[in-house]
Each structure stands twice: as structure tokens, then as C-alpha cells.
Amino acid sequence: MANEARNRRDIVHYGRLLHERGYVAATDGNLSVRLKGGRILSTPTAMSKADLRPSDLVIADMEGRILAGRHPISSEIAMHLLIYRLRADIGAIVHAHPPTATGFAAAGLALDEPLACEVVIGLGSIPLAKYGTPGTPELSATLRPLVPQYDAILMSNHGVVTYADTLERAYMKMETVEHFAQITLVTHILGRQEPLEEEALEKLVLARSRYKGFRSGAPLPLAGHFGNGNHPERSDKNRSPMESDSARESDQESRPNRRTSFD
Predict the structure, then answer these.
(1) 253 counts as catalytic
(2) Phi, psi (5° rounding) for residue 101?
(3) Residue 135, class by beta-carbon neighbours within 10 Å (0-12 exposed, 13-18 middle, 19+ buried)?
(4) How far is CA 95 from CA 167, 203, 224, 247, in A?
(5) Does residue 257 carry a pLDDT above 60?
(6) Which of 4, 20, 63, 76 is catalytic?
(7) How far apart are CA 103 and CA 220, in angstroms?
(8) Which domains does the chain possess?
(9) Residue 208: how many CB atoms within 10 A of its CB?
(10) Each residue of 118-177: pLDDT tens digit?
């Protein structure tokens, strides 16, 4: 485990990358690293990730109590603590709002089609958690069933959380999620998908062990079973956004509009 000074520099570095690449805006997003002695190093609340300095970061215990730091801790520290409690193998967490992936989350669509072999190897599948109010126990409750099996989760009407043994790998998983969301969006626009079949997925499972840094044990997505992408019996989650509009109209009418920024 890197020393605290190095962890502080890394959080500042990857926080700036999130901002530069448009994965967060204003004071959105949060990052954390697990330290020795049951402590967590976290970004503070209400600060842009573009302007963070190592001295701005906050240290808390596993109950979220501040041990060191001159700023209040992230309002979403409970989500980080949940992940650390459920996953002893996790050393760092990144939460952001990358536009394309967050668009899928806002549309109620998981990224669980096996369309790209690299994503299958690195993340397995990217599920969608139900909506929970950020910064409240509701959010932790929606994530709890998914955290033990997955390394990246879309959060409905909110954003994305990724985690790994190191902050670098947690950040790279965030990049992978957004890149895959862009690829998936293109397949929706084109109106067809060619998911990997079961035999190909089985080979990718065997290939996982050969790729450094890919340690995911997440379940693989279902094998492709939609033929050339034009199967007339596709479920709603596999239709393009335009195809699914009418099927979701009644549900959307009953749901309040939510647009909140949290850090």
C-alpha cells in the first residue's frame, strides 16, 4: 500500500483527470483510498476536482468520523464505506458522472450486453442500481446487493461508481465504463447489435487470468442471443432508446424529475 503522501497526490491527480475529461462538473464526484489502520482518505465536499490540493483531503474512520482535515468530508462517504466493508480486496473508489454512461443510467439502461471483449474481461458486466437519494442510506441500500459481485455500477439518475485495489485501476475502470457506453450508444443509433456468443464468452473467462490488472470476478453478461441484432423479440433493455420511448412513457410520467449535483 502506498504511503499517505503518495495517496494524496494520486487523488489530486485522478480528480483533475476526471474534470479534464468531462466526467465531473462543478463540485461533482468523489474519490477515496483505503489507508492502514481502518482509515479512509477522501475528497472533501463542495470542492472542484480541478482545484484540489493534497492538503485539502480528509481522513475518516470506518464510521465516517473525521480524524484529520480542515474541510467537511464528501457527502457520499457512506457509499465508499459500504464498498470497503463489503469488499476487503478494494483499496480505492471513484465516483463520477461521465455523460454517456450517466445517460444510460438516466434512461434506466444497464450496460450488460457483451459487445466488447475488453469490457467482458475487465468488468464482466455493468449493472444498473435502482435510484437512491445521494448522501442517504437509500443509496447504500440499492448498491449493497451489487457491490460483492461487480466492480462498476451505474446508479439510476445519478452516475457511476468504480472500485479496485488501486486508485489507478479504479480510475481506468471509470474510463472503460464511459468508453463502453459510447460504443453501446453507437450500436443503438445504428439499430443493431452483435453480442458475443456463449463460446466466445467462455474463452474470455479463461483469458482473464492472462491480463495484468484484470482481476474481476464479476458475472459475465448473458451470451448473445439476438442473432444479427434485428430479433423481433428483443426485450426493452436491448432496444434502442427511440424504440423504448413508448414502452417507458407511462412510467416516466409517474416519476418526478430529479437533477441534483452531489460531491
Answers:
(1) no
(2) -65, -40
(3) middle
(4) 11, 31, 30, 30
(5) no
(6) 76
(7) 23
(8) 4-210 (3.40.225.10)
(9) 16
(10) 898 889 889 999 999 998 999 999 999 999 999 999 999 999 999 999 999 999 999 999
